[in-house]
TrEMBL record:
It comes from Roseovarius pacificus. [2Fe-2S] cluster binds at residues 83, 88, 124, 128. GO terms for molecular function: 2 iron, 2 sulfur cluster binding; metal ion binding; oxidoreductase activity. This is Formate dehydrogenase gamma subunit. Pfam families: 2Fe-2S_thioredx. Transmembrane segments: none annotated. Binds 1 [2Fe-2S] cluster. Coiled coil: none annotated. Signal peptide: none annotated.
Length: 158
């Protein structure tokens, strides 16, 4: 279960940036630190990070949107990731993903109205022989069918 701090102040954000700006290649460590602290990359962080690293906001947005682990809005209390790799697709992962999103009324990266579950794609969980695979928070689950997904979603409060 995720629990994050309230909305950050500029001082909170500057402190995280300052802790990492001296590193070689500081952008990803800064983004990871901000997301770890606040559960997402808040809009208020964008100009501060861009200014500290002397990059454009567009460049920064490109990095955030490229890496699937960064989010620009808070996730639900639980994150359900469904494997999108070929082995899982061959075992029914596409249908599982479509049915799950339809059942919850979500698109990828969407969060249920009650804030309980965010559904995200992931590209290989390493359970290729046990597909389709999913991950609920930090727990990897293999051989996920519709009934098993329903149980996982119910357990997560969706």
């Amino acid at each position: 279960m995720h629990s994050y701090a309230p909305a950050p102040t500029d001082e909170d954000l500057r402190a995280l940036i300052d802790d990492h700006v001296g590193l070689e290649g500081p952008l990803l460590p800064i983004l990871h630190a901000v997301q770890k602290a606040f559960g997402h990359i808040p809009g208020a962080a964008i100009p501060l990070i861009a200014d500290a690293l002397n990059i454009t906001r567009a460049e920064l947005h490109g990095v955030i949107s490229f890496y699937h682990d960064f989010r620009e809005a808070p996730a639900g209390r639980h994150v359900v990731k469904i494997c999108r790799a070929e082995a899982c697709q061959a075992m029914g992962g596409d249908v599982l993903a479509e049915e799950t999103l339809k059942k919850l009324g979500l698109d990828w990266h969407g969060t249920t109205v009650n804030g309980a579950v965010t559904v995200e794609p992931v590209y290989c969980l390493g359970l290729c022989a046990c597909g389709p695979a999913a991950m609920v928070d930090d727990r990897v689950v293999g051989r996920v069918d519709g009934a098993r997904m329903d149980a996982l979603l119910k357990e997560a409060g969706a």
